[in-house]
Structures are given as C-alpha cells and as structure tokens.
Amino acid sequence: MPDGIDPDFVQEMFPTLSEMTYLDNAATGIPPMTCVNAMNAFLENRITAKGDFEETLENLKEIREHLAKLLGGKRGNYGFMPNTTSGLNAFAHSIEYPEESNVVLCDLEFPANYVPWQHLCRLYGVELRVVNSTDGAAPTEAFKEQVDENTRVLAISQVQFESGFRSDLRALAKIIHGVGGFLVADIIQAAGWANTDLVKEEVDFAAGQAAKWMLGPIGAGYVYASDRIIDELKPKYLGWWGIKGIEEYSYFEREPFQDAKKFQIGSPAMIAYVGMLESLRMLNSLTAKAREDAALENAEYLRGLLREKKIGYYEFQDNHKSPIVSCMPEDVEDLNKKLKDKRIHCSVRNGRLRVSPHFYNSKEDIDRLVEYMG
Question: DSSP per residue over 226-243, as a string?
C-alpha cells in the first residue's frame, strides 16, 4: 500500500477489493461501504416514509461544500446535473456566439466532450476546430495555433480518458482568456485522485460525475462555474430546482439563483446523491496529496514493470502524467478476457490495455496484473 494510505482504512471501506484486483477506475470506481450503506438506508426510509425536503436540501448543501473542498472554490460555485454531458451542454447553450465564432477542442476527447460541441456548431453555424494529437498527447502549443480572436470556447479534458495525458489547464486558460473566451473542462478523469484547484487553474466551467475516481454512484453529476463568469451565463432551460425560493410553491414571477445552482432543472436522483455524499466524506477524510501521490505511485510502479518487459505505453513528462496507463501488450483483447477470468479488471480502449489504479490499490495488485502480460 502506498505511503500515506492506511491499509486498515482501505479494508474497512472497500472490503471487496480483497476478492479481486480492480484496476479500472477510469471506467468506474468501487464505492466505499459507507456509500452503499447510505443508499440502502435511503430506500429503507422511503418505504417507511422517513425524511423530509429540508433534510434533502441540507444534504445537497453539504455535497456542494465537499465539492468545494475537493476541487476548489466555494459552495456557490457548484450545482447538480445528471451527468458530465448534461453539464457541458448546459454551458454550451448558455453563452452567445457572434458571427464567425469558433470552438476549439482536440481529437483525444471522450464523446461526452465532443458530441455536444459538434451539435452546437451545427445548430448555430459555429466553426469547430480540432487539434490533432501526437502519441496520446495534445500539447498546449497545438491549441495556441488554433485559438484566435473569434474563439469562444476551448474545451478540454483535464485528463484524457484513453491515453491518460494530463492537460495544463492554467496554460490553456491563459491562451483562451487572452482572446476573451472560456476554458471549459471535463474533469471526470481527474476529480477524486488529482490534487487540483479549479480556481487556481483559472477554469471557467467544469463538469463531471461521481462514478469514476470519486468512487460514487452513476448518475450523480455536478458542474462548477467560476465567480468570474457566473453572471454572464444564461441557462437555456430553467426549472424549479434552479430558482430562488425553492420551498415556495405558489405561482409568482420566479428568478434564477445567482450561483451555479441556476443550472439545476428538476429533482435530482436523490439516491445517487445520498451515496455521493458519503463518497465525498471518505475522499475528504484523506489529504489531497495522499490520494494523488498514492495513485501516481501505483501507476509509476506499473510503468517500470512495463519497461522491464519491453511493453510499449504512452509516456509523458511528469506534469502531464496521470494514474491512467495505456499500454500495448500482445493480443490485448484475448489478454483482457483472460484477466477478467482471473478477476483482474482493466479496460481495452482503442486497441490498448488501459490500466487505472487508485489510491486504494497496491504494488501487489500491479504485480498480479503484470504476471499475465507475457
């Protein structure tokens, strides 16, 4: 177990990890038992008519506070959406696109962070500019070449889902802010392991959900909107969860919240957010440095073993590394089937084996994987 992580804590929170080798956190993480127990309790309360709306609002308030602790900013910078895609769409349609506007992204993006922009550009006649990657990386300089005075949005994943390349958000923010545009980040592959602060990184808007490195339920999504831009954003859709006086039900002229809650439309999937709260409590009980160091240490240990076996993988400079290791063992599809038979969980993405250890993994997990890799 990496330094700074208590093995007893891991065993208590994640007992099923002793029954398998789980190295697929870039797909979905394993929720802690506190998350599972809270969701079960929620259902028990439903069938016995326990709980009230005030308690629900207090839980959501606490979630936003934990998000701020985890990712930077303050409670008002965060609101809830069903998933990452919904959050990115919400932003995409909340700003104006003057004639000759363009949006810049790269060809490494997961569909959640390019389909919304493709669709928007078709709807509004906006030009979509795509940065071509090289060996799994999309360098800052490549974006600089595409951004001009008409660029409204630079859309980027903080960590790329397949290659594991970690973007330099602050450098990208400098580029896009220099022309008056917005930096919009998909943070789903970073939030939970990365020691990051969206305010310091100068991100304008971000979206993610709890199911991956945050070790929460599927369907508990969230957005971040910076203080710098929040007043400029005009959501295309407004619902009763995004307005002032949410506990007042009579008819009168309603106004949206002045913070990121204005992106909320209708009732969230509360069972998912009950679980998310416990996952966030667990994550924030560890220091951000301990989580990041442990995940990166596990990934670096894997890279060393791959070098010994002469198995190729995407290699980046230290500031662009993440816990996602995308490698090329022989017969990758057959290998992955064999691994699953042995209860070793990874993924295949674009013809490569994607291995993604978290803080709760160990060198023994990595050793067990590598012994099947030729």
Answer: -TTTGGG---S---GGGB
Radius of gyration of the chain (CA): 21
pTM here?
Answer: 0.95
Q: Is the dihedral of CA 21, 67, 105, 140 positive or negative?
A: negative
CA 56 to CA 50: how far, in whole Å?
11
Report strand pairing: 102-106 vs 151-157.
Answer: parallel
DSSP assignment of 40-72: HHHHHHHHTT---HHHHHHHHHHHHHHHHHHHS
Predicted confidence (pLDDT) per residue in 226-284, tens digit: 999 999 999 999 999 999 999 999 999 999 999 999 999 999 999 999 999 999 999 99
State the DSSP string of 91-159. Answer: HHTSS---TT-EEEEETT--GGGTHHHHHHHHHHT-EEEEEPPBTTB--HHHHHHH--TTEEEEEEESB
Provide the CATH number for the domain around residue 185: 3.40.640.10
Residue 130: strand pairing partners: 105
From 239, 260, 284, the end of a domain falls on 284
Q: Are 346 and 369 in contact (CB under 8 A)?
A: yes
Which of 284, 308, 339 marks a domain boundary? 284
- From 73, 282, 294, 103, select the one nearest 187 (Cα to Cα): 73
Tokens of 325: 């290791």
- CATH number of the domain enclosing 15: 3.90.1150.10
In a domain, 38, yes or no: no
